[in-house]
Structure formats: C-alpha cells, structure tokens
User: What shape does this take?
Amino acid sequence: MKVSVIVPAAGLGTRMGKEKSGTSRKQFMLLDGSPILVHTIRKFAACPSVSEIVVALRQEDQDWFGELLSRERIAKPVRVVEGGDTRQQSVENALATLDADTDLVAVHDAVRPFVEPALVEHVIATAAETGAAIVGIVPVDTVKKIHKNKVRDTIPRDHLVLAQTPQVFRFLLLKQAFDKARADQFTGTDESSLVERLENTEVSVVQGSDRNIKITKPSDMELAKMLLAEETAGHKA
Assistant: This one.
C-alpha cells in the first residue's frame, strides 16, 4: 500500500507575530534548534506505513529548506512542491504531483509536531478500511452558539469533535473532492469538509490526543517546549 503524506507549509503565519526566531511564520519557528516543520516531518518519517512526504512551500523557501533537509537525512523520501496562497491550493498542488498508484493520502498540519506515529498508523489503517478517516477529540468545554455576543443555544458535546490532523483519504476520493470543490468554487476549512460534500461518502473519526496541538500563537510555543522536553525524556528513559 502506497501512502503519501502532504504537509501544506506555505502559510504566512498572520496570527503568530514576529518572535525571537526572526519570523512570524510559525512552521519555521525554532523548537530545540530545528524548525517546527522539521519536527513534524520526523514524526511521519518514523511511521512504517508512510511511503513519501510531500511538503508544499512558497517558492522563495524551497532552496534553503531543501538544504536543511539534506542535512537531516530523513529516512523516507521527502519532496518539495510549490504551495498556493491558501491551504486548499497547496494541497491541490501537491495532489497533482502524486503517482497514479498512490493508495492513500494523508494531509497533516505543518505545525502539529507532536502527533504520535501510533496515532498516524491508526488513522491510516482506518482510512484503508473505510476510505476516509480523520483524527478528532471531544471538546471538554461547554459549546455555545452566539449571535452578536448573545447566547442563542447550548450545543450538546456528545455530537461534537474538534478535528485534528492527519486526515487520510483514498487518493481517488480526495481528488474527486478537490475537483468538485474547484467546479463549485467551494473553499473548505479542512480536507474532510471537501470530502463530506460527496454523495454516499462518510468520514470516520479516530480518537485524537490532547498532545497533538496546533501551534498557532506565541503562547503555544511554551507548551510546545514542555511537550518536547517530555517527549525527549521519554525517549531517553
């Protein structure tokens, strides 16, 4: 089974703000001396089911990142493709470069470096069986629907999940979803929202992890450092 992992990493990081690393682009901020994106790639390189990793980058980032990867000696093939102005465009660009014999495609946020390989393997296995699977966690806070800062409803949590990544789909199914989105001029917030629009298609949910955080704002970096320290200590134990 051939599994390709797409990592869209062309975002401009508007919510992060410029930090000590000299960049506002969260995927390139340093965590223990390496860009967050590199930490993410390492996780997928450690997954037996993963065949290749495709990173979508802005053109101006490709050369220096290629040099960085050459020093990393990643155990799995890593390719760089040109990203788009949006996540959806970046993933679509990467999809267009995949071999026809690709079975499954996993899409993962560049700034989720703490995903566990065991979780990756679980969601891949589920998608291989069902055709589409995402990672999600049940919200612990009460969720309110509001209008103009006034509460209009309380939404039962037992029917809600907070979507994480990776999100894994059969290659042809994901291509079909992107083709339909382009034809309809539809922009989704994640890949699952595109696949959900297809007829007779259901997306399975695999239980995620509170550690699988998405680094989006400066305060997340302190939590990331703590999680990395715990992870490093666990490997040494």
